[in-house]
Amino acid sequence: MRICRAQREDLTPWLDLAAEVEPLFGPMVEDPVFRRALSRNIARGTAYCIREGDGSAGSRLLAGLLLSPRPPVYRIGWLVVAKSHRRSGLGTALVEHVAREIPSPAELVVITFGPGVRGGEPARRFYVRTGFTPAETVAPGPSGIPRQAFRRRIDPEGAPAETHSLAVHARDEAPED
């Protein structure tokens, strides 16, 4: 399994992955806001993916993560693992990969389902298992689903200096995604 930065050729496979989770997250594939955010992340190198069979750009995606760098806060804006590959370590691998790339000290934040949301408990448990702490409640999502922030500190000893490649991308930050 190889984690890589998505390329333009990965746009269609990424949308295929997004279609798989639309019943839980709401419409994305035809949503111009999602498409723009995805394109921006791909262009600036903050769209991470795992391709089937370690294939080339344009191959089927097994997992994907979008990261918004606003040092010292880095936000996971989207993390999905294909249903056929859930509970196989791909989501954890993506989170740990970006955590190693973030210059420390910093904070990694994700907004996920609030307590009691049907279908949201697996995501909440996943983030706790990967070192996040449940934090403040945030405004409901566009579909009205309650949401909560989860936060993870990135300490100097937790991220080797040679992996801090996101510092360059943060300087060229695109508008809010």
Would you give an account of this structure?
The structure is a single chain. The protein is 31% helix and 28% strand. A hairpin with a 2-residue loop joins strand 3 and strand 4. A 7-stranded mixed β-sheet has the order 1-2-3-4-5-7-6, sandwiched between helices. Residues 159-165 and 167-177 have low confidence and may be disordered. It has one domain: Aminopeptidase (3-Layer(aba) Sandwich). It contains 5 helices and 7 strands. The chain is of the alpha+beta class and 177 residues long. The two termini are 28 Å apart. It has helices at 11-25, 32-44, 90-101, 121-129, 166-171; strands at residues 3-5, 47-51, 61-70, 73-81, 106-113, 133-138, 147-154.
Could you give a short description of this structure?
By secondary structure, the chain is α+β, with helices and mostly antiparallel strands. 31% of the residues lie in helices and 28% in strands.
User: Strand fraction band?
Assistant: 25-35%
Low-confidence stretches: 159-165, 167-177
Average pLDDT score: 88
**What is the subunit arrangement here?**
single chain
Major β-sheet strand ordering: 1-2-3-4-5-7-6
What structural class do you assign from the helix and strand content? alpha+beta
First-to-last CA distance: 28 Å
> What share of residues is helical?
25-40%
